UniProtKB/TrEMBL annotation:
<dbReference type="Pfam" id="PF02114">
    <property type="entry name" value="Phosducin"/>
</dbReference>
<comment type="similarity">
    <text>Belongs to the phosducin family.</text>
</comment>
<feature type="region of interest" description="Disordered">
    <location>
        <begin position="183"/>
        <end position="230"/>
    </location>
</feature>
<protein>
    <submittedName>
        <fullName>GTPase inhibitor</fullName>
    </submittedName>
</protein>
<feature type="domain" description="Phosducin">
    <location>
        <begin position="27"/>
        <end position="171"/>
    </location>
</feature>
<dbReference type="InterPro" id="IPR036249">
    <property type="entry name" value="Thioredoxin-like_sf"/>
</dbReference>
<dbReference type="InterPro" id="IPR024253">
    <property type="entry name" value="Phosducin_thioredoxin-like_dom"/>
</dbReference>
Length: 230
C-alpha cells in the first residue's frame, strides 16, 4: 500500500504552529463573558420573588407556602419546631447551602403553622426536610440518621445527601461554572492539591452513606435516635 506523505513540519513544529495560531486572549474573554452571564443570571434570580433565592425563607401562612412551592421547579422545605435543638442545627446548615444553589427555593416552616402539610406528609420526626421537583415530593430527609446520627455533621455531608434527591439541578451552581484552572489555583493557594480534595470528598461520601436507607423511600432506618418525635 502507498505510504502517506510525510508532513512538511515536524511534530514539535506543528504543535508550535497550532499554539501560535490559537487566540488565547479571545478564548479567555469568551470564558469571562460566559461567567459574567452566569453571575447576572444568579443576580436576576435573587432579585425576583422578593429576594427569596439564595437564602432560607420562612413561611408562617400555610396556603401561601403551598401556592409558592407549587410554582417552583426545585424546592425544599425544612419542617421544624422552634424548641428543638436539632431543628436549629439543620436550619443553620441549610442557610450555608442556599447561596450556592440559587435555582432551588429553600423554605422553612414551623410545624405549628402548617398542620395540614404535617398531616398530609405524615411528618412524625423533626427536623424533616422535604424535597420537591415540579411540585411533587420526591424525597425526604428525616432527622440526622442519614448524616451519621451526630450533631456535628458537615455541610458537605448534607449537600451530598440532598444532591441524591434531584432537588439541586446539575451544573447551575456558580462553582460548577468556574474555570477548573482557577479552581485548581485556589486549591494550591490553600495548600491542598486535587488528590487531597478528591480523597476528602470520597471519605465524606462514605461517612454520609453509612446507615442510609432507600433514598426515595423517605423512611428512617431502625435503631436508636436522638431526633425529636412530633
Amino acid at each position: 500500500m502507498p505510504r502517506s506523505p510525510s508532513p512538511t513540519l515536524s511534530d514539535s513544529e506543528l504543535l508550535d504552529s497550532i499554539a501560535d495560531s490559537f487566540d488565547y486572549s479571545a478564548h479567555r474573554e469568551a470564558r469571562m463573558e460566559a461567567l459574567a452571564q452566569q453571575v447576572k443570571a444568579v443576580k436576576n434570580l435573587r432579585e425576583t420573588g422578593d429576594g427569596e433565592y439564595g437564602r432560607v425563607v420562612e413561611y408562617k401562612e400555610e396556603k401561601g407556602m403551598i401556592e409558592r412551592m407549587a410554582k417552583e421547579k426545585y424546592c425544599l422545605i425544612n419542617f421544624f419546631h422552634p424548641d428543638f435543638k436539632r431543628c436549629e442545627i439543620m436550619d443553620r446548615k441549610l442557610a450555608e447551602l442556599a447561596p450556592s444553589y440559587p435555582h432551588t427555593l429553600f423554605l422553612k416552616a414551623s410545624v405549628d403553622n402548617v398542620p395540614f402539610l404535617v398531616s398530609k406528609m405524615a411528618i412524625k420526626v423533626l427536623p424533616c426536610v422535604m424535597c420537591y421537583v415540579d411540585g411533587r415530593a420526591v424525597d425526604r430527609l428525616i432527622g440526622f440518621e442519614e448524616l451519621g446520627q451526630t450533631d456535628n455533621f458537615s455541610t458537605k455531608a448534607l449537600e451530598f445527601r440532598l444532591q441524591q434527591s434531584g432537588v439541586f439541578p446539575r451544573n447551575t451552581s456558580l462553582s460548577a461554572n468556574l474555570n477548573p484552572l482557577l479552581v485548581g489555583k485556589g486549591r494550591q493557594a490553600n495548600g491542598k492539591g486535587s488528590d487531597s480534595e478528591d480523597s476528602e470528598d470520597e471519605d465524606e461520601r462514605r461517612r454520609t452513606q453509612q446507615g442510609r436507607g432507600g433514598i426515595r423511600t423517605g423512611m428512617a432506618s431502625k435503631g436508636d435516635s436522638d431526633d425529636d418525635d412530633w
